[in-house]
Design goal:
Bound molecules: iron/sulfur cluster
Helix content: 40-55%
Number of domains: 2
Number of strands: 9
Order of helices and strands: HEHHEHHHEEEEEEHHHHHEHHHHHHHH
Radius of gyration: 22 Å
Structural class: alpha+beta
């Protein structure tokens, strides 16, 4: 049973907030900072002309985990791109690659009557340790010489979500079927016999005000971005950016899959899909958070494997809703941030979402969907976040492949057992993840100060 805690109210997360498109490699350290500086850019663009005419520059200060591992995550180039008015969903990956390749180049930003000259040097890796409101804190400043004309403190709170000092959640509609926990959700599904996909769709429409068509169109769009990412990653072979000099593996795995027997071929295919998308993320190309960029290889791998077995398009759409419901529950009752909860919160949640997605797509009932999600999450509890050299490559890329494999394993277990006999329920495991996150040594929360990050010596 979940320990009592103060209610946060019903889950109000929307698909477009959860499945965010943007550049990798990290939702909290790349996509979140880019969303932050793009938000700051939009705010200062609206300042009165008499204030803007005094502006001489922009500065971004990175604190905490963003300072400790931001270089490897491309936090500086993503932050500069946002300041220059590039939106995360639409910025061409080539623009980001060019920023990284030309660290001294100056870029002009036309802001009101004056043009500001900006470079990567305007993004400052500030204090990595200290008392911060959130482990991923940023301060954006509009400067006039040494005077600050306008500033705002922001937080990249995980999964690409952002908040700021004084943040108040936006006004939304109320869900038709309010729930905070899986047990409340299950009451609607089992007692009232409301199909899971219908319930989630109704909630999405009542909270957002969007039509059913808009919801399905959005899901189709993210599915296509994911499939494109997998397909690209399956043929591109390269050394991934950064000091590890890691060679991509997805294409080679696909070529070498024959001769391994049926199980070996199936696992190699699935794992290569996970590698393909995760390697695209490592290249800083466009991914969809699911729930984060570091874990963004799992759901595309599951999706591609469901297409391989000819699951109808509508069932796949509905399975995205089931996956989102698991992510929402984890976000609401625990965390999706490696900097707050270690890798269990990223790859663990991604795998759990994948298990629910498979079960939903295969036409299982809600108990099996929840049990599959529980099983996958349970076997990631305690997994730490210790990216080598601060790059989302080791262990992240292989973890996406394992996350997809564990998602299928969890589905296979949940679909053959008596669903009423499962001893651990989803709420309990989410509560255990939250507890483990709170008690985990901070070295293992995306600081690159523990585990593999300090054990592996790079030549
Ligand atoms: S180790 Fe896990 S949580 Fe940490 S950056 Fe990699 S994928 Fe994200």
């Amino acid at each position: 049973m979940t320990p009592d805690r103060q209610s946060k109210g019903p889950i109000l997360t929307l698909l477009s907030e959860f499945y965010k498109m943007g550049p990798g490699p990290s939702s909290s350290h790349t996509m979140g900072p880019m969303r932050i500086t793009y938000d700051f850019y939009q705010r200062i663009s609206r300042l009165p002309a008499e204030q803007l005419i005094r502006a001489t520059g922009l500065k971004v200060h990175l604190f905490g985990s963003l300072s400790a591992t931001g270089l490897g995550h491309g936090t500086d180039r993503a932050s500069l791109a946002g300041l220059l008015g590039k939106s995360p969903a639409e910025c061409p990956p080539q623009f980001l690659d060019d920023l990284a390749a030309n660290p001294d180049r100056k870029y002009q930003l036309n802001l009101g009557p004056e043009s500001l000259s900006l470079s990567l040097k305007d993004v400052i890796f500030d204090a990595a340790e200290g008392e911060f409101h959130h482990p991923n804190t940023m301060v954006c400043r509009l400067m006039s010489g040494t005077d600050v004309l306008y500033e705002l403190e922001y937080y990249s709170v995980g999964g690409g979500f952002i908040e700021w000092k004084g943040y108040q959640a936006p006004e939304k509609g109320q869900p038709k079927y309010p729930y905070e926990y899986a047990r409340e959700l299950k009451k609607y599904l089992i007692d009232d016999k409301i199909p899971l996909a219908r319930l989630l769709l109704e909630n999405e429409m009542s909270i957002s005000g969007n039509s059913e068509k808009t919801v399905w169109d959005f899901i189709d769009q993210i599915a296509e971005v994911m499939i494109r990412g997998v397909d690209t990653g399956l043929y591109v072979e390269s050394i991934l950016p950064g000091p590890i000099c890691l060679r991509s593996k997805a294409a080679g795995m696909m070529r070498m899959q024959s001769g391994k027997g049926a199980a070996g071929m199936a696992l190699t295919t699935l794992a290569s899909y996970g590698f393909a998308m995760a390697e695209e993320n490592a290249r800083g190309h466009i991914v969809v958070t699911a729930p984060t960029a570091g874990s963004a290889g799992i759901i595309p791998a599951v999706l591609r494997s469901l297409r391989d077995i000819n699951i109808p398009a509508q069932k796949i759409r509905e399975s995205f809703l089931a996956a989102a419901a698991i992510g929402y529950l984890c976000k609401h009752n625990a965390t999706l941030s490696g900097a707050e909860g270690g890798c269990q919160a990223e790859v663990g949640v991604g795998s759990s979402m994948g298990a629910a997605m498979i079960a939903q797509a295969r036409g299982e009932g809600p108990k099996v969907v929840a049990n599959a999600a529980e099983s996958a999450l349970e076997h990631h509890l305690g997994m730490t976040c210790d990216p080598v050299a601060g790059y989302v490559q080791i262990p992240c890329i292989e973890r996406c492949a394992y996350g997809a494999v564990k998602a299928w394993t969890a589905y296979c277990i949940a679909s053959q057992e008596n669903p009423m006999e499962r001893r651990v329920d989803l709420d309990t495991t989410i509560a255990a993840m939250a507890l483990t996150a709170r008690e985990m040594n901070s070295k293992y929360k995306e600081t690159s100060e523990g585990g593999l990050a300090v054990s592996l010596v790079l030549c």
